Amino acid sequence: DLYNKNIVMLTNNLISLSDKTFPGVNELFSSPEKADGHLKWVDFYRSFWHCDCINRMSPDAFEERYKKWCKRKGYHFSTDAADALYAASCGPYTTLPRDSNAKLLVTVAADQLIALRENQSKLEAEMLNLCKQLPEYETVMAMYGVGKSTGSHLMAELGDVRRFPHRSSIVAFAGVDPGVVGSGKMQLSSVTTSKRGSPQLRKALFQVVSTYVKCKPENEAVYQFYAKKRDEGKPFFVCTTAAANKFLRIYYARVKECLNAAESATQVEEG
What's the confidence (pLDDT) of residue 184? Predict the structure, then answer.
């Protein structure tokens, strides 16, 4: 969690610097994150830290240099991408000149972000290796919206779900159940969540639900429940919380069944 916070801070800092030397460079790439944590736009901006680093060359010269850079860094090369990058370097207005001070600011900020992302990827890999030893690993990772980070986070925070007597217990543990209002006859149209338990767990649940909201999988029960609440006119936060509640209940049922099956198989082998 600490690494994530620092990465967000350093990413915002680097984007702020790019607005002064190469505006919009972070939006010119769509390549996914590499296994070692590297992002293409960060590596590119580290090398081509100012618009003038590109537009002072001819288009053909930049295309050849970009091709060599992609090969050296292990990225896919595209002529269309090279043309788009060259065109993007010719239009914007920069507020920092192309000098040694600006280069130092950019390279130091980029190096800090790259180093932190590399360390984070190592930690995530170790977290996954530990999670793979758990019998519910395959079941959790097969659930829609769960990734390598959120999956290990959920398993670490929730532990053995059989310690919860029923589904509502795990929802209360996560703090996504409706709060209690003890004010006599007063009636509220919406009640805030109790927010008991781990805030990191609720953050992981929100990241999972965000995947449902963005991708809109029509055949998934969690998204269907979310869409139903939206159709009822419920606020966004209420809908996402209800979807997290639904996801936790499904998680509880599937993981509990998996753990019971694994325990039964172990008893048969020992018997």
Answer: 54
Which residue from 81, 111, 91 is spatially nearest to 14, judged by alpha carbons?
A: 111
116/166 same-domain check = no
Domain that holds residue 111: 2-123
Four-residue CA torsion sign, 129, 130, 133, 137: negative
Taking residues 123-138, what's their average pLDDT?
92
Query: Count of domains in the chain?
Result: 2
pLDDT at 187 over 70: no
| Residue 195 to residues 93, 192, 218, Cα–Cα distance (Å) | 46, 9, 29
Q: Give the residue from 94, 123, 152 where a domain finishes.
A: 123
The neighbouring-strand residues paired with 168 are: none
Evaluate if pTM is beyond 0.85. Answer: no
Query: What pLDDT does 4 receive?
Result: 87
Q: Label residue 57 by pLDDT band (50, 70, 90).
A: very high
Task: Name 92's Cβ contacts closer than 8 Å, sequence gap at least 6.
Answer: 22, 23, 24, 51
Q: Which of 62, 89, 123 is the last residue of a domain?
A: 123
